[in-house]
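Catalogue entry: protein
Contents: sequence, fold tokens
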Amino acid sequence: MILTVTLNPLLEQRFTFEKIISGYKNRNGKLNIAAGGKGINVSRQLNKLKLKNTSLTFSGGNYGKLFRESVSAEGLNVAFIHTKSETRICSVVINSDKKPHYYFGENSKISKDETEKFIIKMEKMIRNCEIVIFSGSSPCEETEIIYPTGIEIANNYNKICVCDTYGGHLENCLSASPHIMHNNEEEIKTSLNVRLISENDRITLLNNLYKKGIKQVYLTCGEKNYYASNFDFHYKVTVPKIETLDPTGSGDALVAGIVYGWHNNMKFEHQIKFATALGAVNATMLDVCSVSSGEANKILDSVTVKPLGKKMKILNDTPD
């Protein structure tokens, strides 16, 4: 069982118009309501890959009720800690050019008591999972303790944990030593106040993260080629050239691919290629994290993984 943990979920209202005229009242937009948030996206992609998973998140108010109805209708297995504060909302407007425009509401305000209930529930769920994924931002100061605490709990129970977050709590998350980390470069630069200009800057960061006990790091940069590490071996990954429609959720699709690779004991090179292909295909679609393994496999050969520095020796242990 895979567990995803999301602190800042949202209810997405997506309006699609045949044409939008500035300054006019645009009517008859087609409305679709869906649950969102990074961990929810990861769970959605894991479902698409037929990998059993469950989620833990917050939910509150009228938007929270719609959020719960949405995940149930979609077939996502989600546990909730109820809050007095409304679940965050996001409106998406899509014009005839198919380019979505996002408008996010304010974050939920979570109380100390609700945070404590979340941690108690999270520990019980971590005991019964194989891999736990801490994904997305923290909505407020009260919740910034949750991910570092969750990583420590996962380590205590010898569970594989993946960290994909940013903001003021990121340093504490990394100090807790998750097994796997994903971030895009902008998140790292703003959260940790580090410089990422040259390849050497990126290799230095990968080395520093390995010293914290982080076994794998994926340092992505949107459509650009990116850097990764497997223990103290470093790689540069070539991202496929695609026609981007909406990159929302591409990082979440990549994380789902990483977890899929770990669960299925893929070799590192195959794992990173598959995860990268999932993220790339996701960017060509309006639907978030709904990429099939077949769609990813079609562009697998266009992902290249180049070792940097020392190379890992592959031993031939097949019988004569």
